[in-house]
Amino acid sequence: MASTTSSDLLPSGSRIFTTIPDIFFIPEFVFGGLVWMLVASTLPTLPVFTVNPLGWVMFVSVFCFVMTTLWFFIFACGANQGGIWPSLDVAYHFVAVVMYLSASVALATITLSIGSVNASLPDPQILKIYRLDIAAVVMSFLTTLLYFLHTIFSALRWKSS
Question: I want to staple 133 with a disulfide (CB 3.0 to 4.6 A). Which of 33, 106, 111, 142 is the partner?
Fold first, then answer.
């Protein structure tokens, strides 16, 4: 009779590149970094509003990028072999989904307002910011989807263990 040990719960080392929830680490890095770069490239040129949701978007993208990097190295080094790690994996990715979804909606709202400003006062600089923000919105929602898929597959792995 085969026994299930805690080392069977989560992969470590190079196996994280072959398991289905953990293969999402790389796209999360790439698309989360793109959100960070695209939003950062528009920040200096936008006027500062009293309530600036782009600060939240930057916080979420940088926080999730750093935490995903830390999470990736924990998995790669094999420090994730305790009994609590599957539930922590689900919890972290769920929090990342909620944060990224709220940041994506805020970014889409700002992008729509920039589009309405550009429609009334056509300006090449505002058009450039608008196009960068459209790309950032797409990348942000795609990153949200990746974190969501990672959460679902991590929850399935957690429940099957």
Answer: 111
